[in-house]
Amino acid sequence: MASYPTEVRVELIKYYYRNGESFAATARHLRTLFGRNNASTENTIKRIVVKFEATASAADERSTVRERQNTIRVPETIERVGEHFTAQPSTSISRASQGLEIPRTTLRRILKQDLKMKPYKIQINQPLRPFDMERRFDFANEIIERIENGSMSLQRVWRSDVSHFDVSGYVNKQNWRHWGTDNPHLAVVCYLVGRNYRSRDCQWNRYFAKIL
């Protein structure tokens, strides 16, 4: 389907009404102007006319969206986004979009295409305490024993790597990013707070099975 500028669409609509509101005649006229391969079909012309009659506008909606994006992605806005993420590199796209009043799609384009920034993951490390090694060893031995005696089936085990809750405060790993032009290789040490994590599980390498 050919994409015409607004001026051509206006002339197309005028020709349609001047020639007895005939889609076929308008299509033939376009073929004489642009050639058979570059002219719109009757169905396309019909959509343009129907849109004009409904909205009184001959503008291409896609062009309107592009023009609106071009008015947002100006040097002043790009500079404002850069300053925001330099000061707060871990801000989520959603929150920054609300604060800066910029659509999320446009904000991502500014970050990636204009500012050449990337969302680098912040690694979360949980330190092992002395008794953790012993508990891991006991757990592994118990799993092996249950597999061997048939009381546990590996087909009933589900491993999930989703998100974190209540790990030294609230952490959502899926949204924990650092926007920048270079990888800062950030790592944060987090501790499970006693038994409090039971109420709001840390679903980081969580296992579901009959034995749990």
Distinctive features:
212 residues; mainly alpha; two-stranded antiparallel ribbon; two-stranded parallel sheet; 48% helix; elongated; disordered C terminus; DUF4817; Helix-turn-helix domain (DUF4817)
Which secondary structure elements does this structure contain, and how are they paired or packed?
Blueprint: H1 6-18, H2 23-34, H3 42-55, H4 61-72, H5 75-87, H6 93-100, H7 104-114, E1 118-121, E2 123-125, H8 130-148, E3 158-161, E4 177-180, E5 187-189, E6 204-208
Parallel strand pairs: 2-5
Antiparallel strand pairs: 1-4, 3-6
Helix pairs in contact: 1-3, 2-3
Task: Explain what you see.
This is Helix-turn-helix domain (DUF4817). InterPro entries: DUF4817. It comes from Popillia japonica (Japanese beetle). Pfam families: DUF4817. Residues 7-55 form the DUF4817 domain. 48% of the residues lie in helices and 11% in strands. By secondary structure, the protein is mostly helical. The protein has helices spanning 6-18, 23-34, 42-55, 61-72, 75-87, 93-100, 104-114, 130-148, and strands at residues 118-121, 123-125, 158-161, 177-180, 187-189, 204-208. The longest helix has 19 residues, at 130-148. The chain is elongated. α1 (6-18) packs across α3 and α2 (23-34) crosses α3 (42-55). It starts with 5 loop residues before the first helix and ends with a strand. It has 3 domains: 6-59; 72-116; 124-208, no CATH class. It has 8 helices and 6 strands; from the N terminus they run αααααααββαββββ.
